[in-house]
Design a protein that fits this description.
Helices cover 26% and strands 16% of the residues. It is α/β, with parallel strands linked by helices. The chain has a single domain, classed as Rossmann fold, CATH 3.40.50.150. A seven-stranded mixed β-sheet has the order 3-2-1-4-5-7-6, sandwiched between helices. The chain is globular and about 45 Å long.
Length: 218
């Protein structure tokens, strides 16, 4: 059976793409920067002008820096593209997903005006990762379960977590990025790539809902 095709805009190094691939999609990534470690077909191009036809679904992860509470002061020059990309995707008639950080104008749940959304965390998937991301979709979606913030998090980039990590994985915190990337499920990425990535478990879950929306058996 032919796998449905998914377009991955602002693809980065392929965290989202890997989840969709595991869910049953063939993925093509588009990013304005070279992505030598992207694990699937890749096109270097502007995601805001790349043709959208010929795909069964579209995922977009526009730059998050200016929406992030932690990074906003470090992100001069980044555009807020969620409104523009939402308008662009909504006009395709193709199922779509937009992903971004907590603090971005994406819904955490379905709204009264008909928007679909959810917030996902690594702890919902049994990962020792507290990495909250918002997803707006053109189809119905739900989180697999609630967060479990009693779990012990791995995050070498947050001081409170970094202090706990030696007792979890051993070694000095400067050597802990590799086990953190492995827990994220993005072991092929560099340090900087993994800092911007989402665990593939998130989009593998969303991909199941997307297949149902497309009426394609998983």
């Amino acid at each position: 059976m032919t796998r449905p095709r998914l377009l991955d805009l602002f693809c980065g190094a392929g965290g989202a793409a890997t989840g969709y691939y595991r869910a049953g999609f063939d993925v093509t990534g588009v990013d304005i920067k070279p992505q030598p470690r992207y694990p699937f077909e890749f096109v270097q191009a502007d995601a805001m002008t790349f043709p959208l036809d010929g795909f069964d679904a579209i995922h977009a992860s526009p730059p998050c820096q200016d929406y992030s509470k932690n990074l906003r002061h470090m992100a001069p020059g980044y555009s807020r593209l969620i409104g523009s990309i939402r308008e662009r995707l909504s006009g395709t008639g193709t199922p779509w997903i937009i992903e971004n950080v907590d603090g971005s104008p994406l819904p955490r749940q379905d709204t009264l005006d008909g928007a679909h959304g959810t917030e996902l965390c690594g702890s919902m998937f049994g990962l020792r990762i507290w990495r909250h991301r918002l997803f707006e979709t053109s189809f119905g979606i739900a989180a697999p379960r609630g967060c479990n913030h009693a779990s012990r998090p791995l995050n070498p980039y947050r001081q409170s977590s970094r202090l706990l990590m030696p007792g979890i994985v051993g070694g000095e915190w400067r050597t802990q990025e590799e086990p953190w990337r492995a827990e994220m499920g993005v072991g092929w990425m560099s340090r900087d790539e993994s800092r911007e990535a989402i665990p593939p478990a998130y989009t593998e879950h969303i991909g199941g809902h997307l297949l149902a929306a497309l009426k394609v058996a998983p």
